[in-house]
Amino acid sequence: MKILAITSQKGGVGKTTIATALAVAAEQAGKSVALFDLDPQASACFWSDRRRKELGEAGGTPTVRDIQIARLPSYLEAMREAGADLVILDCPPVHRDIAHDAASAADLILIPTKPEVFDIRAMQQTVAAAQQVGKPAVVVLTFCPPSGPEAEQARDIVRKQGADLASVSLHQRKAYGRAQMQGLAPQEFEPNGKAADECRELYNAITLQLYGGQHGKKGQSRKRA
Fold first, then answer.
1. In terms of CATH architecture, what is 2-211?
2. CA separation (Å) from 89 to 100, 110, 152, 158?
3. Mean pLDDT on 162-190
4. Is residue 224 pLDDT above 60, yes or no?
5. Is residue 193 a contact partner of residue 178, using CB atoms and an 8 Å limit?
6. Backbone phi, then psi, for 34, in 5-degree steps?
7. pLDDT at 222 over 50
8. Residue 139: beta bridge partners?
9. Picking from 80-89, 147-156, 193-202, 203-212, which range would have the lowest pLDDT averaged per residue?
């Protein structure tokens, strides 16, 4: 079982959007996956509630659980015993103790950031925190404008910081917000759209980081937390 923590010291950078999109992508790839919502705002749980309302019984997957950080080790062990392939941790901003404990449990830390000055500053702090716990970190740029120098400038800063940079960036696209409001991922809301392509590319990049050449088990029955 692999554990992916999605974290940033700053809010509004797309953590839950990415977490839900990657969870759906993992299920579509045949993996047994759970999404643990560690954020007191419980945005991922809200997404899951909307999903059940929109999709009915089919909205019960992927599994989303509201988890208190003190109970995280027990829930992770339960998922490991159940044979899960992947657990995604949706971490809150600001709460450094929660982020630290989640990062310590993770195999990989994904750090979303907008290509803006205050977000970049927060990203640098999050990368430093990941480096302190000795875990690999990947930065993904989010809400990138369609033109302008900001995204490339942000990439230069990430490289100088010593963190890996995801090969795909997520852009400002309406499909992200519209999918979230329906409890969907962009791949489901607009399968042939650009947002869906970005999510699939990000999932493939993260899978390569987590599993190397082994893309996990496919065609198995999905297990629930």
1. 3-Layer(aba) Sandwich (3.40)
2. 12, 10, 28, 22
3. 94
4. no
5. no
6. -135, 145
7. no
8. 111, 165
9. 147-156
Q: How confident is the model at residue 217 (pLDDT cuts 50, 70, 90)?
A: very low
Q: How many residues does the chain have?
A: 225
For the chain, the average pLDDT equals 89
Strands of 2-6's sheet in order across? 63-66, 33-37, 86-90, 2-6, 108-113, 137-141, 164-165
Q: What does pTM read for this prediction?
A: 0.90
Beta bridge partners of 2: 86
